[in-house]
UniProtKB/TrEMBL annotation:
<keyword id="KW-0479">Metal-binding</keyword>
<keyword id="KW-0460">Magnesium</keyword>
<keyword id="KW-0800">Toxin</keyword>
<protein>
    <recommendedName>
        <fullName>Ribonuclease VapC</fullName>
        <ecNumber>3.1.-.-</ecNumber>
    </recommendedName>
</protein>
<dbReference type="GO" id="GO:0016787">
    <property type="term" value="F:hydrolase activity"/>
</dbReference>
<feature type="domain" description="PIN">
    <location>
        <begin position="3"/>
        <end position="119"/>
    </location>
</feature>
<dbReference type="Pfam" id="PF01850">
    <property type="entry name" value="PIN"/>
</dbReference>
<dbReference type="InterPro" id="IPR029060">
    <property type="entry name" value="PIN-like_dom_sf"/>
</dbReference>
<dbReference type="GO" id="GO:0000287">
    <property type="term" value="F:magnesium ion binding"/>
</dbReference>
<comment type="similarity">
    <text>Belongs to the PINc/VapC protein family.</text>
</comment>
<keyword id="KW-1277">Toxin-antitoxin system</keyword>
<dbReference type="InterPro" id="IPR002716">
    <property type="entry name" value="PIN_dom"/>
</dbReference>
<keyword id="KW-0378">Hydrolase</keyword>
<dbReference type="InterPro" id="IPR022907">
    <property type="entry name" value="VapC_family"/>
</dbReference>
<feature type="binding site">
    <location>
        <position position="8"/>
    </location>
    <ligand>
        <name>Mg(2+)</name>
    </ligand>
</feature>
<keyword id="KW-0540">Nuclease</keyword>
<dbReference type="InterPro" id="IPR050556">
    <property type="entry name" value="Type_II_TA_system_RNase"/>
</dbReference>
Length: 130
């Protein structure tokens, strides 16, 4: 293992699809998932025609990774990030601000395909353009 990986929703979906590059990279690290991502996945499963199998896949993921909950300190990071984005005239989805806060509080690089995370100062990311 090379370190820690915090997964954004799009990387979890790539993992579920069995994308080889994602599987290879994640095999090298201890994997963390924000509780916010679990919520996004559950929402996607609820509206899916394959709801039961999607929920089963999410349950299996939860048993294999460390799920990071929201904490008071993350709320502090959230406020700082949201203000920094407002001051710079940048906007990103609310859930992604929380995901960034979780990454920053835990000092774990965020694995994502979303380019808008680059608008957040001091956020460590690893991006894949697959």
């Amino acid at each position: 293992m090379n370190g820690k990986c915090l997964l954004d929703t799009n990387i979890v979906i790539a993992l579920f699809k069995g994308e080889p590059k994602v599987l290879k990279e994640l095999a090298r690290c201890k994997t963390y998932v924000p509780a916010i991502v679990i919520g996004e996945l559950r929402y996607g499963a609820e509206k899916s025609e394959r709801s039961d199998s999607n929920h089963t896949q999410i349950d299996a993921l939860i048993n294999e990774v460390i799920v990071l909950p929201i904490t008071t300190e993350m709320g502090n990071y959230y406020g700082e990030i949201k203000n920094q984005l407002r001051s710079s005239g940048k906007r990103i989805p609310e859930n992604d601000i929380w995901i960034a806060a979780i990454s920053m509080e835990n000092d774990i690089a965020l694995f994502t395909r979303d380019k808008h995370f680059a608008n957040i100062n001091d956020l460590k990311t690893k991006s894949w353009d697959i």
